[in-house]
Specification:
P-loop_NTPase, Rad50/SbcC_AAA, two-stranded antiparallel sheet, AAA family ATPase, 6-stranded antiparallel sheet, alpha+beta, globular, Rossmann fold, 7 helices, 33% strand
Length: 228
Amino acid sequence: MILEELCVSNFCLFRGRQVIDLRPGGRGGLMRPIVLFGGMNGGGKTTLFDAIQLALYGTRARCSKRAGRSYDDFLRASINSSVPPGIGAGVSLTFRLAVNGEPHSYEVRRDWRVHDGRIKEDLYVAQDGVVDTALTRQWSQLVEELVPIEISQLFFFDGEKIRSLLRTQRAAKPLGRRSARCWVWTSSSASSPTLLSSKRDSPNTRENRGRRTKSGTWNRPGIPPATT
């Protein structure tokens, strides 16, 4: 899973449509697969991480500005203050994933607005530019196979958050629970990684682990199994 683009529309302090290129760059023939955001306090760095969390996890997103609010209240407060609530806001995340050795582009988009005093949210998941209803319907389960929310802070973090994570023992539990669940990256070419999954074993599935891992099966609608 390679993140390519984040788009925010009227989200928090970002007014209008703002597009952030997340594609890994290179210099002097060397790839530099780390994207860093720099800026003054209050400049919107953490807001970008919140946008990624929100796009992926929706109601379960662990956003810095949620602070105990209900999901609807958080979405309402996340609409830029200069924009009418009826116009609303949105976030979308585009990423690349190789399936059966073929690279595909996926987009997860959430839009919301206030209608008749209530929050109306829409979720769309598209594969190669076409909205897939099966992926959309089961996205909350599918995203757990890509980036489990319990360890998502190890993938998307700011300096303060990672310091806090390293200093607390609370991080040990989710990491321990996920220790038997990992993603294995192989590559048929330098630009086309293939994803295989190795799930945590239960007593009745342990004997099938080798077969499942070798075949690279990912039994989820809309995305075919990966292969070695």
